[in-house]
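# nightly structure sweep
# worker-07 picked up a monomer target from the shared queue
# config: single-sequence mode, recycle default, output format = structure tokens
# input follows
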Amino acid sequence: MENKAHAMAAGAFVLVVTALLALLAVWLMRDNSQRDLYEMSSGETISGLQPQAAVRFRGVPVGKVEFIGFDSKVKGNVLIRISIDRGAPVTQSTFATVASQGVTGLGFIQLDDDGTSNERLASNDGDDLPRIPLKPGSLDKLLKQSDAIFTQAEQVTARLNRLLSDENQAAFSTTLVQLGESAAALNRMAKDLEPTLASLPKLALQTTTTLKDASVTFKDTSTTMKNADEAIASVKSSSDEVALTARRLNEKGGALDTLATGGAALTGTIEAFSATTLPRFSKLADESTRTLRQLRRTVNAVDDNPQALIFGNGPPLPGPGEPGFSAQPVAP
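# output follows
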């Protein structure tokens, strides 16, 4: 009897301890936060999403999934009811996507906001709960694009098969041989260019010297241009002085005017000289000419007959056909 009593006491103790642990777990896991209910409706597949799955707003846990079923308002759509903490910033522009968690593949609701509205999405306790738009997630987009991806992969595979055909492989082999020949030709060309490259420093030095000479020439040209500018300035100054002198000469009463007046007076004097004095000089010259002629004849007569100065000229000699004419022999 005592053994049975001890066993019953131990059993009762275990039951009490178990009940206390259960109550402690319930007390520790109780959720006192206030949450609002929202709904989401979607015609997309929500594989991996289960009731009690987490609801996160930009990665921060803000609630959980309460119910997953079919939408009575939209035929064929899946209805998801979630509870979200009232402190979460749920606005009119908040939207949801179904995301997967790590390698486990467990789904959860990811909330986000595009920032177009700051008005909070109000909740109510009735049957007509506010709805948050559910957009396709990355996995859904990938599944939608899978057919197109597979089609493109088939096209790529077919093109690769055509590219790797026997004819193309032969062409590739020929191309590789030609590339090898081209590489060898480039190598020979590089060797041929080595002397030219070796002469580049000397050419660079000559170029530098030429540039220095060109710089000196440019400086000399600058000096020449400067001297030319000074000469032009001097010529301009001289031209200005000549213009001033010409203007002064052309002024009334100036040198040219005085010279013109003197020229007119000189012209009058010359005309008077030509009208009065020149005829007299001409007459005097004629008389002097006649006198010189007579003097020349007298001198010639004296030379021919010097005795004429004492005895006179005498009778003239008889001419041809006159008595006593005799022809004088011509001296050889």
